[in-house]
Amino acid sequence: MTLTESRWRKVIRDRHLYLLLLPVFAYYIVFHFVPMYGVLMAFTDFNVFAGLRGSPWVGLENFRMMFRNDDFFIVLRNTVLLNVISLFVAFPAPLVLALLLNEVRNRRFKRTIQGIVYLPHFLSWVVVSGLIISVLSPSSGIVNAVIRSFGGESVYFMTEPAWWIAIYQFSGVWKDVGWGTIIYLAALSALDPNLYDAAMIDGASRWQRLKHVTLPGITPTILVVFLLSVGNVMTISFDRPFLLGNPMVLEVADVISTYVYRVGLLNVDYSYAAAVGLFQSVVNFVFLLTANWLSNRIKGQGLF
Amino acid sequence: MATRRDPITWFDALNVVLLTMVAAACVIPMIHVTALSFSSEGAILSGRVSLLPVGFQLQGYRTVLESAAMMRALGFTVYLTILGTSVNVMITALGAYPLAKPDLVGRRLIWLLILFTMFFSGGLIPIFMVVRALGLLDTVWALILPGMIATFNLILMKTYFSGIPTSLAESARMDGASEIGILMRIILPLSTPIIATLTLFYGVGHWNQFFLALIYIQDPDKYTLQLRLQQLITDGIGYGPTVVFGQADDIPVESVKAGAIMFATAPVLIAFPFLQRHFVKGALIGSLKE
After folding, report:
1. B34: nearest CA partner in chain A
2. Is the pLDDT of residue A7 over 90?
3. Which residues in B269-283 are b (16+ Cβ under 10 Å) and which e?
4. Does A111 touch chain B (CB under 8 A)?
5. Any CB–CB contact under 8 A between A236 and chain B?
6. Which of A129, B186, B189, B270 is the most buried (most CB within 10 A)?
7. What is the pLDDT of residues A70-90, one digit of tens each?
8. Interface residue A298 vs chain B (CB under 8 A)
9. B22, B26, B125, B209: which to substitute to probe chain A, counting the most A Cβ within 10 Å?
């Protein structure tokens, strides 16, 4: 009784704070929770003018269509394939770079390198794809100029599917490897120096210290980054595949986001595209929960 | 980590070489495209340009700067960036301040719901329907409101606010200051590092805005710079310059493309060194909390 009373007294005392939160509530409700309700359109034959309630309910028909559609399986395969390769390439790259930076003796050299490798993160994908297409151009690009100077022939990097996948991976590493080191460098700087002193006294070499002090110390951070990528297994942001892609490589470059854009917004097949989007969100969420559960069981720690 | 007592080994030398190569790989594409932007069309097409301009010319940049379409896109993008970033930082602060108060009733539930939005989304189409229903299509607000708060940035700011001693706010409250007054006159002046960080993050987001402009904007007067740039460099094969410049017969297409890329990137490159020390500090605040 008194407990609820004091809670209410606190609410009244803090009424101005709740007032400050109003625009924040409004934002999350309108642009996050209303769309979560609106996704029910995936179960209707959606009509923009009739709205969600006025559109006929069709149950799982859109999902049935989705699982019978070859295009859907192609974009599903591409999304998962590109993300799984990223898990082996883009996920470890910042960790390795952070560990290398951590071994640098000269502070000024370290800071200079850090400053340079952070930069590409702030360029847009339009600019990055423009840079990459220029650099790899078979006629005017610097990479093919080097290849030719060694007697090779120009490589059509952007139009051969296998090369395109490699370039897709490389572009992600190029843009974000530096940025990705920040979280690891923060974790490294938070490690207890006493552990290193103790290891030194025990005669541990640099390699042994890396293996037995550094890596175990930042494992929680690695785990967090890993779980977050697993929770995005179905997500590839629109810009990168759309801007690097071209008609010649559509068989590997078309992913869920570009497919939803094309089917939903260009061909205005709203309910079908919403169904694809819902499938994506649900699979992501299930993967996140499963990976988190496994991580809690095996390592005793997770995101939540 | 190496200490003074560790002898310098071949690994240290290899590490310096390796890191230098990584840094070089980061800047070489930018140097190459800068060189292209100043080079003659003939030199570019015959593949003679690497890191220095060949057949120096300024026609590429002149074409970009004289283009009404590019200039309008620049003007709109500056407007979007200033307006959008102001709204973002202000509203994020309004959220972070109450949520940093440890005994706010309902804080855990509110926070849980906010974090949930990081891991589950209604998807593109339902969000598009909301923007459409609100009548925001073809307005600058379609590019601002759907991303008004980035939850990650809200976490950074809340964490920063949590580190400010509560005694300061308490004594102001004793003196009869209102909550908004405390936020404006006490908390925010103490928070310049995190404000600078979020200004950079949100500002770069608007400056680089491509996708939202692609889906929400039809009116060419409201195209963002990145959307124009994309039309110029990747849209179709050879149609880009005609779309952007009207007619493209006497335009040195390759150097114009390179010039437009550098033109859209220059502000980021210029601002970057000044803002760098802030964002590293700011990003560390968030990750250290984990």
Report:
1. A131
2. no
3. eeebeebbebbbebb
4. no
5. no
6. A129
7. 999 999 999 999 999 999 999
8. no
9. B125
Would you state the structure tokens that stand for residue B268, as one six-digit string?
A: 């980021």
Predicted confidence at residue A303, as pLDDT, reads: 83
Q: Which of A127, A176, A229 is the best substitution to test chain B (most B C-beta atoms within 10 A)?
A: A127
DSSP for residue A128: H
Where do the domains of chain A lie, and which CATH numbers do they carry? Answer: 69-298 (1.10.3720.10)
From first to last of its 290 residues, what are the pLDDT tens digits of chain B?
777 778 888 999 999 999 999 999 999 999 999 999 999 999 998 888 989 999 999 999 999 999 999 999 999 999 999 999 999 999 999 999 999 998 899 999 999 999 999 999 999 999 999 999 999 999 999 999 999 999 999 999 999 999 998 888 888 888 988 889 999 999 999 998 899 889 999 999 999 999 999 999 999 999 999 999 999 887 545 567 777 777 666 778 889 999 999 999 999 998 888 877 776 666 665 554 44
**Cβ density class B7-19: b for 16+ within 10 Å, e for less:** eeeeebeebbeeb
Residue with tokens 């642009």: A31
pLDDT of A98-152, one tens digit each? 999 999 999 999 999 999 999 999 999 999 999 999 899 998 889 999 999 999 9
CB–CB contact A140 B47 (8 Å):
yes
Indicate the SS3 state at residue B168. Answer: helix
Instruction: Map residue A57 onto helix, strand or coil.
Output: strand
Residue range A14-56, pLDDT digits in tens: 899 999 999 999 999 999 999 999 999 999 999 999 999 999 9
Give the number of other Cβ atoms within 10 Å of residue A149's Cβ. Answer: 9
Please say whether the beta carbons of B241 and B168 come within 8 A.
no
CA of A130 vs chain B CAs: smallest distance (Å)? 7
Residues of chain A found within 8 Å of residue B216, distances taken between Cβ atoms: none
Shortest distance between the Cα of A78 and any Cα of chain B, in A, equals: 19
- Shortest CA gap B105–chain A (Å): 6
CATH class of domain segment(s) B62-289: mainly alpha
| Separation in Å, CA of B107 to nearest CA in chain A | 10
With contacts defined as CB-CB under 8 Å, which chain A residues touch B208? 122-127
Contact A101, A181 (CB under 8 A): yes
Helix segments in B38-147, DSSP class H: 41-45, 59-66, 68-99, 107-119, 124-133
Q: Which two tokens stand for residue A193?
A: 């120096």
Q: Which amino acid is at B201?
A: F
Residue type, A167: I
Residues B12, A11: C-beta atoms closer than 8 Å: no
Closest Cα of chain B to A300: distance in Å? 16
- Cα-based distances in Å from B151 to A229, B91, B158: 17, 12, 10
Start and end residues for every CATH 1.10.3720.10 domain found in chain B: 62-289
What percentage of chain A carries pLDDT values higher than 70? 99
Q: Do B32 and A10 touch (CB under 8 A)?
A: no
Whether A32 sits inside 8 A of B284 (CB atoms) is no
